[in-house]
C-alpha cells in the first residue's frame, strides 16, 4: 500500500470506534434562587439578595430534562426577605471572588473603558455565544497580564447577574474569549440563612437506562467542595451548579463481571434525572439559568417567621 | 460510570463555551481515548473526566481549552495500567468489533490500517491520530502531548514508516 493511500485511509473513521452521543446542547438550565420579599430578618442584612441556586444542566437529548428543586431555608424556617434595590458601591463588597475587582459599579456603568478593536472583536464573539447572558456594550477592562485580559460589565440584559465577566487569552493567530465568568454575588457561609436539605435523585421510570443515584451522590460527596456532603446538600456559596451525566448500559443476564456485555453497543445515553430536595419551594422560584426567566414560582410563605 | 460535576457559579456563564467545545470535539476526544487502547466505556469516562477537570476552579484560566482537553485525555489514557489497556484492546476486538456503520466501501481496508496503528507505541499512535485524523499541525500536537515540535515530527515520521512497512503487502481490492 502506498504512503499516500495510507494517509488517505487514516483520515477516515473506522467503524469500530464508539459514537459520542453526549453532544447536545444543554436541554434545560434551571437556576433556583431565593425569592426575597417582606421583612428583613435580623443578621441577614446584605445577604438577603443571595441567590442560592442549583443549576442542573442536563445534556439529555433526545429526552427532555426534568429537574425539580426545593428551597434553601433560613435557620428559623422563615423565608429570606428584602431585596436590595441598588447595585453596591463596589463589587468588592459582593464576593470574595471579586477581590481583584477595584472598579465600582458606577464606574463600570458610566465610563466604559475604551477598548481596542481587537478587544471589541473578541468580546463581540463571546457575547455572540451567550447573548442572553452578556451585554453587547459597556465592557470595562479589569485585569490585563501576560496577554490575558478580563473584562466586566453590568449584568444586563440579565439583571439576575449583577456583574458579568469575560476572560480572554492568546492563542496561535489571535486572541479568543476563554469564558464568560459568573457574577459576583455574596458569598454565603453556612448558617447565614441557610440550612441543610435532604435530597434524592429520581430517574424517569420510563427511561430504560440505569442511573445509579447512589453513585451520583457519592460523586457529590467526594467533591472537595464544602457545599455538599453525605446525603444532604448545603450551600456555602451563592450558586452551586450541578451537571448530571448519566450513562446507560446494556442490561442483560450474561453480562461479564466487568460490565461489558457481548452484543451490546455501549454508548452514552443521558437520561433525565430529577433532583428532589426534601422541602417545598415555598417563597422561592426556579429560574432559567441562561435567561434568568422564572419558570416556576411557588406561593410565598406566611410572613412573620 | 455515571458522573457529576459540581461547579461554582463562575462556571455558570462559561457553560455555553464548554458546550461548544463538547459539541465540536467530543467525538474527537472519545476517538483519541479509544485509539489509545481504552475500552469504549473507559474512553467515555476519560472524556467526561477531562471535562470535569477543566471545570475545576484551578483550571478556569486554561488558555487553550481544546489543547488542554486533548492532552488530558491522552494522559488519562496513558495513566491506565498497561495490562488493563491490553485486556481492553482484546476485549474491544471481541465485543465491539461489530461494525454498526460501514464507513465508505472499504471497511476491511480501513480496519486493517487502524489495526496497524493500534500496534504502534502509545505516543506514536497518538501522533498519528492527531496528525492524520484531526489534521493538527505538529506544533499543536507538541503542545498537546507536552513534547517538542521536532520530537512530534520525528515520532510521526517513524510511525508512518512503520505503517508503510507493515502495510506494504496489503492488497487493495
Account of the 3D structure:
The complex is a heterodimer of chains A (305) and B (173). Chain A is an alpha+beta fold and 305 residues long. Among the domains of chain A are: 18-83 and 189-207 and 265-300, no CATH class; 95-181, no CATH class. Chain A contains 4 helices and 13 strands. In chain A, the strands form 3 sheets. In chain A, strands 10-2-1-12-13 form a 5-stranded mixed β-sheet, with no helix packed on it. In chain A, strands 3-4-5-6 form a 4-stranded antiparallel β-sheet. A 4-stranded antiparallel β-sheet of chain A has the order 8-9-7-11, with helices on one face. Chain B has 2 domains: 1-98, no CATH class; 105-168, Winged helix-like DNA-binding domain superfamily/Winged helix DNA-binding domain (Arc Repressor Mutant, subunit A), CATH 1.10.10.10. Chain B has 8 helices and 1 strand, in the order E-H-H-H-H-H-H-H-H. Chain B has helices spanning 15-35, 40-54, 65-79, 82-95, 107-118, 122-133, 138-145, 149-166, and one strand at 3-8. The longest helix of chain B has 21 residues, at 15-35. In chain B, 48% of the residues are buried. The model of chain B is unreliable at 1-16 and 85-103 (pLDDT under 50). Chains A and B meet through helix 1, strand 2, strand 5, strand 6 and helix 4 of A and strand 1, helix 1, helix 2, helix 4 and helix 5 of B.
Number of helices of chain B: 8
Low-confidence stretches of chain B: 1-16, 85-103
Q: What's the SSE pattern of chain B?
A: EHHHHHHHH
Total DSSP E strands of chain A: 13
Structural class of chain A: alpha+beta
Report the sheet-strand fraction of chain B.
under 5%
Low-confidence segments of chain A, given as residue ranges, are: 22-102, 178-199, 203-274, 281-305
* Run of helices and strands of chain A: HEEHHEEEEEHEEEEEE
Could you give the distance between the termini of chain B?
Answer: 42 Å
Large-scale geometry of chain B: globular
Read across the widest sheet of chain A, the strand sequence of neighbours is 10-2-1-12-13
Strand content of chain A: 15-25%
Helix content of chain B: 55-70%
Largest sheet of chain B: none
Give the count of structural domains of chain B. 2
Amino acid at each position: 500500500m502506498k504512503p499516500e493511500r495510507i494517509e488517505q485511509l487514516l483520515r477516515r473513521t473506522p467503524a469500530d470506534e464508539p459514537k459520542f452521543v453526549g453532544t447536545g446542547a444543554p436541554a434545560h438550565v434551571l437556576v433556583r434562587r431565593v425569592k426575597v420579599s417582606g421583612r428583613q430578618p435580623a443578621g441577614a442584612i446584605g445577604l438577603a439578595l443571595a441567590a442560592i441556586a442549583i443549576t442542573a444542566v442536563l445534556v439529555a437529548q433526545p429526552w427532555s430534562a426534568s429537574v425539580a428543586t426545593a428551597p434553601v431555608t433560613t435557620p428559623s424556617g422563615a423565608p429570606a426577605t428584602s431585596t436590595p434595590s441598588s447595585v453596591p458601591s463596589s463589587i468588592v463588597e459582593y464576593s470574595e471572588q471579586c477581590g481583584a475587582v477595584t472598579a465600582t459599579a458606577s464606574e463600570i456603568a458610566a465610563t466604559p473603558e475604551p477598548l481596542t478593536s481587537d478587544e471589541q472583536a473578541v468580546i463581540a464573539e463571546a457575547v455572540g455565544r451567550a447573548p442572553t447572558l452578556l451585554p453587547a456594550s459597556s465592557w470595562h477592562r479589569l485585569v490585563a497580564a501576560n496577554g490575558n485580559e478580563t473584562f466586566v460589565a453590568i449584568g444586563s440584559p440579565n439583571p439576575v447577574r449583577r456583574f458579568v465577566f469575560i476572560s480572554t487569552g492568546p492563542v496561535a493567530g489571535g486572541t479568543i474569549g476563554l469564558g464568560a465568568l459568573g457574577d459576583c454575588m455574596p458569598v454565603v457561609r453556612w448558617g447565614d440563612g441557610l440550612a441543610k436539605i435532604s435530597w434524592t435523585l429520581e430517574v424517569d421510570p420510563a427511561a430504560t437506562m440505569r442511573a445509579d443515584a447512589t453513585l451520583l451522590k457519592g460523586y457529590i460527596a467526594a467533591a472537595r467542595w464544602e457545599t455538599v456532603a453525605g446525603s444532604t446538600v448545603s450551600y456555602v456559596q451563592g450558586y452551586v451548579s450541578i451537571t448530571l451525566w448519566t450513562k446507560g448500559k446494556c442490561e442483560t443476564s450474561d453480562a461479564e463481571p466487568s460490565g461489558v456485555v457481548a452484543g451490546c453497543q455501549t454508548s452514552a445515553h443521558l437520561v433525565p434525572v430529577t433532583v428532589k430536595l426534601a422541602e417545598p419551594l415555598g417563597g422561592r422560584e426556579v429560574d432559567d439559568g441562561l435567561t434568568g426567566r422564572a419558570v416556576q414560582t411557588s406561593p410565598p410563605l406566611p410572613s412573620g417567621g | 460510570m455515571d458522573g457529576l460535576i459540581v461547579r461554582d457559579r463562575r462556571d455558570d456563564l462559561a457553560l455555553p463555551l464548554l458546550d461548544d467545545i463538547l459539541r465540536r470535539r467530543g467525538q474527537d476526544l472519545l476517538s483519541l481515548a479509544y485509539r489509545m487502547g481504552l475500552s469504549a466505556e473507559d474512553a467515555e469516562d476519560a472524556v467526561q473526566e477531562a471535562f470535569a477537570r477543566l471545570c475545576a476552579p484551578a483550571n478556569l484560566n486554561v488558555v487553550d481549552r481544546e489543547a488542554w482537553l486533548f492532552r488530558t485525555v491522552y494522559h488519562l489514557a496513558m495513566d491506565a495500567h498497561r495490562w488493563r489497556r491490553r485486556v481492553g484492546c482484546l476485549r474491544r476486538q471481541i465485543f465491539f468489533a461489530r461494525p454498526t456503520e460501514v464507513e465508505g466501501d472499504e471497511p476491511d481496508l480501513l480496519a486493517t490500517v487502524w489495526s496497524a496503528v493500534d500496534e504502534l507505541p502509545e505516543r506514536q499512535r497518538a501522533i498519528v491520530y492527531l496528525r492524520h485524523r484531526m489534521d493538527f499541525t505538529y506544533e499543536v500536537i507538541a503542545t498537546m502531548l507536552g513534547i517538542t515540535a521536532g520530537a512530534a515530527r520525528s515520532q510521526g515520521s517513524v510511525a508512518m514508516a512503520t505503517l508503510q512497512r507493515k502495510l506494504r503487502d496489503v492488497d487493495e481490492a
